[in-house]
Automatic annotation (TrEMBL):
Keyword list, A-Z: Membrane, Transmembrane, Transmembrane helix
Top-level taxon of origin: Eukaryota
Transmembrane stretches, start-end: 6-23, 30-52, 64-83, 95-115, 127-147, 168-188
Lineage of source species: Eukaryota, Metazoa, Spiralia, Lophotrochozoa, Mollusca
Record-given protein name: Uncharacterized protein
C-alpha cells in the first residue's frame, strides 16, 4: 500500500476534521453536497466507482444496483435540501438521526459483506480504508451533531445529563436490535456457545 492509495483517506480525514467543528448547519450542507456528488458518481460512472473498491469482474446487475444506490443517495439529499430552510428545530435533528441510523445499517452491511462474500467480485483493501472509513467518518459526524442538539421540540428534557443518557440509551438499543437483525447467527452463537449453526 503506497501513499497514492492512502491519499483519499487522508483527504477525507482532513475534510472531516475541518468541517466537524463548524456547526450543525455547515455539517448538514457538507453532507448534502458530498452525498449528492457521490450519488451522481454512482449513477454516471458505476463501473469506475466500483472498480476502485472491488476485485473481479463487475456485471450489469452490480452496475444496476449501484446506480439504484446512487438514486437513493440523491433522493435523501433532495429531502435534506428541502428541509434545510425549515424553522422547526425537530426537522434538522430528525434528518441527522436518520443519517446516523442509515449509515450504521450501511456500515454493518458493508463489514458483513467484506468478510462473508466469497464469490467474485469481492471487496478489496481499498473498500476498507476508503469506503468503510469514509462511512464511519460520516456516521461519527452525524452522531456528534445529533448528540449536541439542544432543541428536540416539545420532548426536550430540562436536565442535559438525563437528555444525553436518553439519547445514548436510544442509540445503544437501536444497535442491539440492528445486531440481532443483521447478524442473527453470530449473536446466537455468542449467546449459546455453539460453534456452528
Amino acid at each position: 500500500m503506497d501513499v497514492y492509495e492512502l491519499l483519499p483517506s487522508i483527504v477525507m480525514t482532513v475534510l472531516f476534521l475541518g468541517i466537524l467543528p463548524l456547526g450543525q448547519k455547515v455539517w448538514i450542507s457538507a453532507d448534502l453536497t458530498i452525498t449528492s456528488a457521490w450519488g451522481l458518481m454512482c449513477i454516471t460512472f458505476p463501473q469506475f466507482v466500483m472498480q476502485y473498491q472491488v476485485d473481479g469482474e463487475i456485471d450489469m446487475q452490480h452496475e444496476y444496483f449501484y446506480r439504484l444506490f446512487g438514486f437513493v443517495l440523491l433522493v435523501t439529499s433532495l429531502f435534506g435540501v428541502l428541509t434545510q430552510n425549515s424553522d422547526d428545530p425537530t426537522v434538522k435533528i430528525t434528518f441527522l438521526w436518520s443519517r446516523v441510523i442509515a449509515t450504521s445499517v450501511y456500515i454493518l452491511n458493508r463489514v458483513y459483506s467484506i468478510y462473508n462474500i466469497t464469490k467474485d467480485p469481492q471487496w478489496n483493501d481499498r473498500s476498507l480504508y476508503f469506503g468503510t472509513y469514509g462511512d464511519v467518518l460520516w456516521f461519527l459526524g452525524s452522531l456528534y451533531h445529533s448528540l449536541r442538539c439542544q432543541d428536540w421540540g416539545y420532548a426536550n428534557e430540562a436536565h442535559l445529563r438525563i437528555d444525553l443518557h436518553l439519547r445514548m440509551d436510544t442509540l445503544l438499543t437501536f444497535f442491539m436490535a440492528l445486531m440481532y437483525f443483521v447478524f442473527p447467527g453470530h449473536v446466537f452463537k455468542i449467546q449459546v456457545g455453539i460453534s456452528s449453526i
